[in-house]
Each structure stands twice: as C-alpha cells, then as structure tokens.
Specification:
Elements (H helix, E strand, L loop, with lengths): L1 H5 L1 H12 L10 E4 L7 H11 L6 E9 L2 E2 H11 L7 E6 L4 H14 L4 E7 L3 H11 L4 E7 L13 H18 L3
Parallel strand pairs: 1-2, 1-5, 2-4, 5-6
Antiparallel strand pairs: 2-3
Helix pairs in contact: 5-6
Length: 182
C-alpha cells in the first residue's frame, strides 16, 4: 500500500500509457477514420494524412443515430469546413455500436478494395484496443494505429480532470471486456 502511495503518479501514467499504441505514419493503401469523436480530431487527422500523401483517401466510418444522420456524413462536412476537399473521403455508413461491430462493417470494404496496409486513425486512448481488434479480425492486413489527440485525455495527466478520468475508465472497461470476450 505504501508503494502505491509513493508511486501513484507513475502507476497512473503507466495505466494511461497502456491504452496508447500509436505509430508514426507511413505510406499505406488507405486511411480508416474510426467513428466516435464528436470534436472532429479523428477526421482532421485522417484528412492531414491524405494531404501529406500517406494515403490516397480516407474511409470514414459512420454509424447512424445522430439526429437521423450518419456520423461519417457529419465528419466529412466538418473536414470540408476546415478546408479539406470532399475527394479525400469515402463515407462508409453503418449501424455499428462498438469497435468490434465497426470492424465487421469496415473490413469487407477494405477487402473489396484489395487493401493491404491501413492507417487506422482513432483517438490516442483508443489506439491499442482498436488496432488489436482490427488485427485479430483481418490478420492478412497491416494496421498502423495513428493517434488523433483528445481534448480530455492525456496519458501524462488523465487523472487531473473529470472528463479525463471518465475517458480512462470507459476505455479500460472496454479493454477488459474485450479481454474476457464480452
């Protein structure tokens, strides 16, 4: 107990660091922007990767349910407002409710396109779990997790804000659930 008290910051950092498994961008067949970011950081990161020549286009996942809209349509419109051309994006509307369901919706399109290497764009705290799911479901493809920043989560200080603590807790619940097959 004394060790936990003395090393609590290092322990909290370590738990936050576990969630983040981002790699440097490199040339890929396509970028995939995962849903779940209402701030727009994921779509803007995907657009930057296309603009910088790492991928020719970005598939944008978009579950339904946001006031009758698909998230991909809202995300692409957001990116266009930020100066990125619509030609950068391919909307992939779907009805997923989890990262696992999202992978099952996206992977057929990647296979149809003959994709081998994917830049998997998601929030930093989601990179480890998301990459694991996609790699398990499509071992024939190479997934390079690319972190988009999150305004509330920082692996160096997620415990300092209520939203950071909530983000951390939800991602760990989902991670453990994935481990035990829930």
């Amino acid at each position: 107990m004394l060790g936990a008290a003395v090393f609590h910051t290092a322990i909290l950092r370590g738990l936050g660091n576990y969630l983040v498994r981002s790699e440097a961008p490199q040339k890929a067949d396509i970028a995939v922007v995962l849903a779940g970011d209402s701030a727009g950081n994921r779509i803007l990161k995907g657009a930057e990767l296309v603009r910088e020549g790492y991928a020719p286009q970005a598939l944008v996942s978009g579950p339904s349910g946001l006031y009758g809209f698909y998230e991909c349509d809202l995300a692409i419109a957001f990116a266009e407002k930020h100066g990125f051309p619509a030609s950068y994006f391919v909307a992939v509307p779907n009805h997923s409710h989890s990262t696992k369901e999202e992978a099952l919706a996206i992977l057929p399109e990647l296979r149809r396109r003959g994709v081998h290497t994917v830049l998997l764009v998601t929030s930093d705290y989601h990179t480890h779990r998301a990459a694991g799911i996609y790699r398990a479901d499509a071992p024939e493809m190479r997934f390079i997790p690319i972190a988009a920043p999150d305004e509330y989560f920082s692996r160096e200080g997620w415990w300092k804000s209520r939203e950071g603590r909530k983000t951390f807790a939800f991602e760990w619940i989902k991670t453990v659930s994935e481990w035990i097959g829930l």
